[in-house]
Specification:
Largest sheet: 5 strands, mixed
Radius of gyration: 16 Å
Oligomer: single chain
Distance between the termini: 6 Å
Strand order of the largest sheet: 3-20-19-18-17
Helix content: under 10%
Number of strands: 21
Shape: globular
Length: about 210
Amino acid sequence: RASTDRWVYRYTVDLTKSSLPHDGGKFQIDVTPYFNAWTGSQLCYGFVSGSIWCYGLPGDLSALYSGTRNISPQSHGGGYHPLHKEYWSPGWTSGNTHIYRYNDAGGYLGGFYTGGRYIRQVAGDPTEDNYYTAEQYEGWRKRKGKTSQLLWSTYVGTYPGSIATDGNFVYGQRYNDHQTVYKMARDTGKKAATLKLDKWYGNDSYGG
């Protein structure tokens, strides 16, 4: 979980329990994390412009290493599509937001329009050619391929701030609700459970 105070906090996940304890692991990043992407081996963060910083995550966070990638965030949001191995960065617009696509070297691959607005985070599905968005006023949404075709939409309150998937379920957190994590069915978006971080730190949350 990333926060606007530039700290990243690590929590232990046991989905048989409703409480997710902070295991003491944390590290500070170089930018306010408007852009967030988990590639499967690295966490990448960026501001609303400039390059992004990527952090390898060994078990021992004292051995953390980092480096920059020449990928330009467009605004809020940002994410990674593991199926396509691409970084995706949405603009910050009031309608039909455009997502910019980049390869690992920072090469621009073109983009597409989502039909969404005010996207705070985007995350690709690891095995399906689909993607998820956290949209400030519409909720959490799943769309098909690189299109605006809506597959489902779930709304539980204002200001969704993050979205992530492990390939089994989808997880979302509201921007200004620091402890609640909503677990949703991957195929339907139906809420499956409500999880709680046992404590929270810092300011408003960004990234899942």
